[in-house]
Specification:
about 270 residues; alpha+beta; 5-stranded mixed sheet; two-stranded antiparallel sheet
Length: about 270
């Protein structure tokens, strides 16, 4: 039986109650919305009417979740601190809100044995209405000839100052036709603006200018900018200068920068 819209709102509402104060946003979607825009090789292997939720982090997450997490966990071994923080809070929220419900959680950094990502984060954000995924195909009369241009999501409130962190799939929870697919806000409607966005993201992504393609209501704090501007291999050393007592043999994921470009944000 399909879940009524009130149940969908109840599920997302419980997650929001916990995660929003930590700097996260949640958006529901149907598996069918996601699968309908992708090749079968990228489909989620669930019934089409299954409920899923995509989780984003906003600029507030760093101060409201990450730094407190590091204070609590600073004496324990960490792989990638941000990834561990996100996993900690999302799994805790799911366990607290849905102790009897089977929820499959996929994180943006996780890969299948084939080396493909477990889910395409920017596609999930787009079909849920969370952010508009601007791709090469969205530009008419492309100026790049045969060059491949990576796409990037833009949030209507935060521009590029956010990240897509996880996809939650509620196994056995079917959604009826009363859950209407939202249309993501087209923040960059002009051809010129889309060219500027994609070129800034592909050619100058380290200067973060693409994040300001629209006027954001909030950006990363100076401390957060310092963290993400630091090479992944050097971030543990930076955390030590901030007073977090990390083990000398802790290591960060060497593919962090590459995965960030594929998924859109860090």
């Amino acid at each position: 039986m399909a879940a009524p819209i009130s149940n969908v709102e109840g599920i997302t509402g419980r997650l929001k109650d916990i995660l929003s104060r930590l700097g996260f946003e949640v958006y529901p979607l149907k598996v069918a919305w996601y699968n309908s825009v992708l090749a079968s090789s990228h489909h989620l292997s669930y019934p089409e009417d299954t409920l899923a939720v995509v989780v984003l982090s906003t600029p507030a997450m760093f101060e409201q979740a990450f730094l407190p997490f590091m204070e609590q966990m600073s004496c324990k071994g960490l792989y990638d601190p941000i990834d561990q923080c996100v996993k900690h809070y999302i799994t805790s929220a799911v366990s607290q809100c849905f102790p009897e419900q089977k929820v499959d959680i996929s994180y943006d950094y996780e890969l299948l044995p084939s080396r493909k990502p477990k889910f395409l984060a920017q596609t999930a954000a787009h079909v849920s209405g969370a952010a508009f995924y601007y791709q090469q195909a969205n530009v008419t009369d492309q100026p790049w000839a045969e060059k491949k241009m990576y796409g990037v999501c833009v949030h209507p409130r935060f521009g590029g100052w956010f990240a897509i962190r996880a996809l939650l799939v509620f196994k056995g929870v079917a959604v009826g036709s009363d859950l209407i697919q939202p249309v993501p806000t087209d923040c960059v409607p002009s051809r010129e603006g889309r060219i500027q966005l994609l070129e800034a993201f592909n050619f100058h992504w380290k200067d973060w200018s693409y994040r300001d393609i629209v006027l954001p209501v909030q950006t990363y704090s100076p401390k957060q900018k310092d963290y993400f501007s630091t090479l992944p291999a050097q971030r543990l050393a930076l955390l030590r200068t901030w007073g977090f007592l990390l083990k000398e043999d802790d290591k960060l994921n060497p593919s962090t920068d590459t995965q960030m470009k594929v998924n859109g944000h860090g």
